[in-house]
Structure formats: C-alpha cells, structure tokens
Design goal:
single chain; 149 residues; mainly alpha; 6 helices
Amino acid sequence: MTEGGRTVLILFVTAAAASDLRRGRVYNFLTLPTLAGGIWLLACHSPEEVPAVLAAMAATLLFLFPFWRAGGLGAGDIKLLIALAPLMGTGWFLLSIVLSFLIGAVISAVLLIRYRDLSRTVHFAVPIGISVVLCLLLEQVGIQSPSLF
C-alpha cells in the first residue's frame, strides 16, 4: 500500500470512529464513497485481486448479518468493515476483523469491570480503527500480509 493509501485509510477509520463516538453512528456518506473508490482503485491497480476481495466482502456480510439482526452490531459497523476490504486486501482485511473483535472484547471487559454496568456499549468503529492501525504498523515494519492458503 502506498503512503497516500495509508493516509486515506487512517483518515477514514478516524472519521468513522469519531462519528461513532460522537453520534453513535457510522454514516453512509463515509462508508459508501470509500467502498466505491476502493473497488475502483483495486480494479485499476490489481484487477486479479477483485474476485478475492469481493468474496471476502460477501463472506463478511453473511457472517456478520446475524449479529446485526440480534442487535450486537450496527449496520454502519458492517459497512465500515466491508469498505476496508478493497483498501487493505484480503489478508490484512480478515486479520483486522479478527483483531477488531478481540480489541472490542477487551474494551468491553474493561468497561464491565470498571463500571459494573451491562448496558454500556462499545462503539465498534473504535476497535476497527485500532485494528487497522495495528495492521498498517505490521505492514510498515515489513511483516507480510497474512496468507489465506
């Protein structure tokens, strides 16, 4: 990923996390243009990766849909995750999803211990943003993208 791509990705997840913290929502005007632009850039620069990324996006939607139906995740969180796929590539994208849930679990545990209140929720765009930054840092120090096969 280029420096410009990293910058766009960091700005995107920062804006989404700020929106989620402030308003409790991740808005479509953030996710949809980012998704469209990411797919367009991917198609222009790495067309061979498009099928794998589209499959990862579809799998993410299918896997997370029950969590949305149960009220555990917002639709904006799912759209945020899906918009990351073409920007990160499948390996980093799937790792960021796993890290997001792990980070979200740690934050939830800390909130539960600290406040002893089950009604507190984690604004999931924050763990997503942290996971993206961690993946970018791993890439920056020379660690290769996790392989799916």
